[in-house]
Amino acid sequence: MEKARHQLPALGIDFGTTNSSMALATGNSQVQLASFPARSGETASSRSVLYLERSKKISGVQRTHSWTGPAAIEHYLEADDKGRLIQSLKSYLSSRTLTGTEVFGRRYTIEQLISRMLADLREHAERQFNTPIRYAMVGRPVRFVGAETEDDDAYAVERLREAFTLAGFESVDFEMEPVAAAYTYESTLDHDELILIGDFGGGTSDFSLLQVGPGVRRRGRTSRDLLGNSGVGLAGDAFDARIVRKLVSPALGSESYARSLNKILPAVPAWIYANLERWHYLSFLRTRNVIEILKSAHKRALEPEKIEALITLVDEDLGYHLHQAVQRVKLELSQSTNAEFHFRDGSMDLQISVTRSDFEAWIKEELQAIEVCVDSLLRTSGVAPHEVDRVFLTGGSSFVPAVRRIFSARFGENRVRSGNEFTSVAHGLALRAEELLKTASFQLT
C-alpha cells in the first residue's frame, strides 16, 4: 500500500528504561504531549513496566491478565498473591544470551514482552489524539546498555523494531535520543548554534554534538551537522542503586555480623542485598528459603533489630515504596546539601540523615565515567569546549548538581541549560517525524 508520509500522524515515542512518553506534532512545529491517568493525577510519562497475573480458573481454564504503565504498578501493589512484575526490559535488548523468560509456564521473548507495553502506548495515543497510529519516530540511545560493539547496537535496534511490529506498528524510524532532545532545544532558537546535548535516562547517558538553528533548517540538514555521538550505559538507575547500597542496606544489616560456631561472620548473604538495589527484584526474595535464611540470621545476629527490619521489608514486599523514598531523597539532595531519608510503610520505619557530599562520594565512579565519555566526544569530534555555544541537559539525572558541574566546569555555567527534563526527547521525536514526513514518501506493507 503506497502512502505519502505527510499523510501520517507525526508521532514520537520515547520508550525509556524507566519511563516512556509520547508526543504528536500538530503542524507549524507545534507539539501535543500525551498524558497518562494515574491515581496521583495526570502524568506526562508512563512507567515502562509490565505486570502479569494469573486469574482464577474458570471451567478449568486459567488465563493470564496483563497491565502496563501506572495501572501495572497499581495492580501489583494491590495484589495479595503477587504475579510477575517486569521492568527495565530495554536494558536487555543488546544481550544475545537473554532472549526471553518464562512466566506461569509460558515462554515469552523479550520482544513479545516489550510489544505488550508498546501496544498499550499505541492504543493510548489513538484514543488521546483521535487518529489511527501505525507509524512512529522512535528514540534510541547512542549506546544500548550492555552493547560493546556497533553490531550489538544494531542487534538491539532490530529487536526493538520487531517489538514495535508485534505491537501493531507498520513502520518505524529511529533517531538518537540526544538528537531528538536537540530538536526540542532548536525550536526555541532564532539563530544557529553548535550545541552539546546530554540526555540522562534510567539506563544510559547519551551525548551529541550538532549544529542546529533556523539557518540549518532552511538550507536543509546534512550528515555534517552531527559532529559526533557518545554514550555510556549508566544513569539514574545506577545512582539509585548506590543510595540503596550505601545508605539503606547498612540500616538493614548489610554490614552486620552474627556468631556461627564461635566465629564472627556476615549475618546475611550479600546477594540478598543486591536484590534490594532494583526494587522489582525484591519480590523474588519472598520465598520460604530466603525467609528461613533471614530468620536464622536474626537469631544469631549481633544487631538483630536490623535483620528484623530487613525481614519486614521482604515479608511486606515494600520494594516499590522503598525506591520511591530513594527517589525523594535524591531529589532533595539536588535541591539542598542535607536531606533526611525517611521511609515509613507498613510496620517499617527508617529515618537516616544524609549529605550531598556523601551521595557524590557514592557515585564518584559513575561521574568519572560520564566525564570520560564527554571528553572523548569532544576529542574525537575535534571540538574545543570554547567552541560549544550551548549545552542542553535533559533527563532526571540532569538535576543532580554533581552531574551539572561536569558541564559547567568545561563550558561555563552561563552556557548550560535544561528544561522539559522528562519529555524533551518525545517532543523532539515528534518534530523529527514531522520534518521527515514532509520530505519523503514510503510504502507500508
Topology:
Layout: E1 2-4, E2 10-15, E3 19-27, E4 30-33, E5 46-47, E6 49-54, E7 64-68, H1 69-78, E8 84-87, E9 100-103, E10 106-109, H2 110-129, E11 135-140, H3 150-166, E12 171-176, H4 177-186, E13 193-200, E14 205-212, H5 214-219, E15 226-232, H6 236-251, E16 257-260, E17 263-266, H7 270-274, H8 288-300, H9 304-315, H10 319-335, E18 338-345, E19 348-355, H11 356-362, H12 364-381, E20 390-394, H13 401-411, E21 416-418, H14 424-439, E22 441-443
Parallel strand pairs: 2-11, 11-12, 13-20, 20-21
Antiparallel strand pairs: 1-22, 2-3, 3-4, 3-5, 6-7, 6-8, 9-10, 13-14, 14-15, 16-17, 18-19
Helix pairs in contact: 2-3, 4-14, 8-9
Describe this structure in words.
- By secondary structure, the chain is an alpha+beta fold.
- Helices cover 40% and strands 26% of the residues.
- It contains 14 helices and 22 strands.
- It has helices at residues 69-78, 110-129, 150-166, 177-186, 214-219, 236-251, 270-274, 288-300, 304-315, 319-335, 356-362, 364-381, 401-411, 424-439; strands at residues 2-4, 10-15, 19-27, 30-33, 46-47, 49-54, 64-68, 84-87, 100-103, 106-109, 135-140, 171-176, 193-200, 205-212, 226-232, 257-260, 263-266, 338-345, 348-355, 390-394, 416-418, 441-443.
- The strands form seven sheets. Strands 2, 3, 4, 5, 11 and 12 form a six-stranded mixed beta sheet that branches.
- Strand 16 (257-260) and strand 17 (263-266) form a beta hairpin.
- The chain starts with a strand and ends with a strand.
